[in-house]
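Section 5: illustrative case.
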C-alpha cells in the first residue's frame, strides 16, 4: 500500500499542531487572584464607638448673678471637697449683709424699747396709774417689734447666704472635666462655671440606632480602648435613653464599667461590643459572590494545590458592600474576591495578597 507524500505531510503538520497546543496549555501560567481569609466578625448593630465618662459629675455654677473675678482650676485639675473653685465679685452682697446687720441692730433696739414700755405700763396699771388701753397698746408695740426682729434676722441670714453663693465650692473629691466661664465674664444664676466629675466610677457612653431593640438594661458588653484594643473591660448597661434623639435618631446608652484600670481615662474613645450567642458571622465582599443557577457561590482557594473550587453558600441581607454568610464557609477559608465570573473549576491560580476579614 502506497501513501502519497502530501498525505504524509498533512499528518505531520496535524501532529505538530496538536503538540504545540499541548505545550501551550502546559505552559499557561497560574492566574493571579485577589483573595481574603474569612473569619467571624461582629454582626452589624452589635459594635459601637463611644467615650468614657464619669458616672457622677456635677455642673457647678453660682446661684446669684455677678462678675467672675477668679477661677482657680482648669480642665484636668484634681480637687477636694470644699475647695474654692471660683469667686464672683461680692461687693454688692457684702453691702447687703452690712445693711441687714444694721437693720437687725435697729430691730433689736426697737424691741428693747417696746419691752421696757410694756413693763412700765404694766406696773402703772397695777397701781391704777395707767389705763388698760395703754397697756394693750404697749403689748401690741412689743409684738410688732418682736416680729420686726425676726424679719431682720431672716434678712441677715438671706444676705449672708447670697454672699456665700459668690464662692463656688467643690461638692466632692473629683477632677475638673470642663469650664464654662472665664475671669471677667458676667454670669447669670445657674450658668455653668466648672464641671467636676468623680473618676472612681466610670461609664462607657455610646449612641445606638433606635432600631437596636435587643439592647436593654442589663445587657453585657465588652469594652476596648480604640488607642489600645488590648485593654479590655467588661460592662453592663445601666441606663438606656427612653426615646431617640430628634436629629440623630439614636438613643444614648450608659454602660457601667467593672473595675476599669487607670488607663481607661475619662474622655477616652472606646469600642463597645455586645456579648451573647449568635452575634458574630462571616462576612464577604459582594464582589466575591457568583450567582450560579440562581444560588450564591464563592471560589474557594485550595492553597496546597493552587486551585480554585466553586462552593455554594447562604447569604443574608447586604451590609454596605458586604454580605453575611451564615453557612457554607468556616473560619480560615480563603475566598477569591475579584474576577469570579472568569474563573473555571480547578483552574490554577496565584495568590496576590494575604488579606483577612
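Designed sequence:
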Amino acid at each position: 500500500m502506497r501513501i502519497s507524500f502530501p498525505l504524509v505531510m498533512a499528518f505531520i503538520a496535524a501532529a505538530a499542531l496538536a503538540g504545540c497546543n499541548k505545550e501551550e496549555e502546559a505552559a499557561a501560567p497560574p492566574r493571579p487572584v485577589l483573595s481574603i481569609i474569612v473569619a467571624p466578625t461582629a454582626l452589624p448593630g452589635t459594635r459601637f464607638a463611644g467615650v468614657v465618662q464619669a458616672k457622677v459629675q456635677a455642673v457647678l455654677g453660682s446661684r446669684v448673678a455677678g462678675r467672675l473675678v477668679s477661677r482657680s482650676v482648669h480642665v484636668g485639675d484634681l480637687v477636694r471637697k470644699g475647695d474654692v473653685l471660683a469667686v464672683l465679685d461680692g461687693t454688692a452682697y457684702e453691702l447687703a449683709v452690712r445693711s441687714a446687720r444694721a437693720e437687725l441692730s435697729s430691730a433689736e433696739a426697737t424691741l428693747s424699747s417696746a419691752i421696757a414700755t410694756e413693763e412700765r405700763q404694766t406696773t402703772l396699771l397695777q397701781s391704777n396709774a395707767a389705763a388698760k388701753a395703754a397697756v394693750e397698746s404697749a403689748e401690741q408695740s412689743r409684738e410688732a417689734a418682736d416680729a420686726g426682729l425676726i424679719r431682720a434676722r431672716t434678712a441677715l441670714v438671706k444676705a449672708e447666704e447670697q454672699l456665700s453663693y459668690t464662692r463656688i465650692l467643690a461638692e466632692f473629691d473629683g477632677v475638673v472635666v470642663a469650664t464654662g466661664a472665664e475671669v471677667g465674664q458676667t454670669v447669670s444664676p445657674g450658668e455653668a462655671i466648672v464641671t467636676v466629675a468623680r473618676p472612681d466610677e466610670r461609664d462607657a457612653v455610646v449612641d445606638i440606632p433606635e432600631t437596636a431593640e435587643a439592647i436593654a438594661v442589663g445587657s453585657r458588653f465588652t469594652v476596648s480602648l480604640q488607642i489600645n484594643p488590648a485593654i479590655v473591660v467588661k460592662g453592663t448597661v445601666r441606663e438606656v435613653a427612653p426615646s431617640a434623639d430628634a436629629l440623630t435618631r439614636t438613643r444614648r446608652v450608659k454602660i457601667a464599667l467593672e473595675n476599669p484600670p487607670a488607663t481607661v481615662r475619662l474622655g477616652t474613645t472606646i469600642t463597645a461590643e455586645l456579648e451573647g450567642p449568635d452575634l458574630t458571622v462571616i462576612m464577604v465582599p459582594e464582589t466575591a459572590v457568583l450567582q450560579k443557577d440562581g444560588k450564591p457561590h464563592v471560589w474557594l482557594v485550595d492553597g496546597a494545590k493552587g486551585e480554585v473550587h466553586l462552593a455554594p453558600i447562604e447569604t443574608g441581607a447586604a451590609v454596605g458592600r458586604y454580605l453575611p454568610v451564615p453557612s457554607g464557609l468556616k473560619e480560615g477559608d480563603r475566598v477569591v474576591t475579584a474576577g469570579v465570573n472568569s474563573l473555571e473549576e480547578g483552574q490554577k491560580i496565584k495568590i496576590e495578597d494575604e488579606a483577612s476579614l
